[in-house]
Amino acid sequence: MPDETRADFGRAFRMESVKEVELEFAFGFPVALSVSLTRLKYLALSNMDLDTDEETHSKSPCEVALEGLYLRACSWE
């Protein structure tokens, strides 16, 4: 994913008004961005290929506020 697109997603996901996110058919989506979504009320990921990196593995656990989580056909390596 291009750096600019990744930064734009990050800005949108940090907006206080964003409470629910549904993402479908995204390939190479950074796991670090999806982890940042755990502060939301509702998260749905469908047909996603998540791209892990060393940065994600080295971070400490985050606080999860999710009330609803939907995963369908997601994979990560």
Structure explained in plain terms:
It is a single chain. The chain is of the alpha/beta class. It has one domain (3-76). 30% of the residues lie in helices and 39% in strands. The chain has a 3-stranded parallel beta sheet. The longest helix is centred in the N-terminal third of the chain and has 12 residues, at 3-14. It is globular. The two termini are 16 Å apart. The model has no long low-confidence stretch (mean pLDDT 82).
Quick rundown:
With 77 residues, the protein is of the alpha/beta class. Helix content is 30%, strand content 39%.
Instruction: Specify the overall morphology.
Output: globular
Q: Whole-number radius of gyration?
A: 12 Å
Rounded mean pLDDT is 82
The low-pLDDT segments are none
Tally the beta strands: 3
> What order do the SSEs take from the amino end to the carboxyl end, as H and E?
HEHEHE
Main pleated sheet: 3 strands, parallel
